[in-house]
Amino acid sequence: MSRARDAAHARPTTVVLTGFGPFPGVPINATVRLVPEIAMALGKRRIDLSIITDILPVAWERGPARVRALIGEHRPDLVIHFGVSSAARGLVVERQAHNFCRTSADADGNLPSLNLIDADLGEAAVLPVSLPLDCVAAALDDMGIRFALSDDAGGYLCNAVLHASLREAAPDVAVGFLHVPADLGAADCPLAWEDAVEAGVAVVTACLTDGGARS
To answer: In 101-210, which residue ranges form alpha helices assigned H by DSSP?
Structure first.
């Protein structure tokens, strides 16, 4: 087969972007709207990408299970989850996931069965994200986007989903998590909506340009 035909049949770079649905205390989750807008902006600029979006249920069982199914079905090169945080005043780039669940009810009204995500790992176990964080930080700096690096994704579904993705994805798949302010879209939110969309595009582009995902 010629190189031209090889190129024609090559699998495009596959990117999975997820947000979350509502959960107790957050009846409207900004990522429900944000993730599709980031995907649309990426699609207009990169025709070589296959972009998969999904809104995950904020449920101890169904959320991680849905992530594992997405990774198994689409075999992505890059996975980035978006969630909201009431403490975030800009974009928060998570650096790791903890093997821990706090005792909080999910959107189904259920509590976690254990305080560990994976009973085979110790409570002190952490999984580092596989994004090229230096490149991500440089891209956000260049944009002038207010952001912070975090070592604590919380003990709720954001952390659980990130942990599940890092456990499920192959070693050469880049996986990460970004938190945006829970009041994203409000007039007094420090992070403007348009900046959040552009930041999402910049993070994906930085990961792909760096080679943090297969091409």
So the answer is: 133-143, 157-168, 193-210
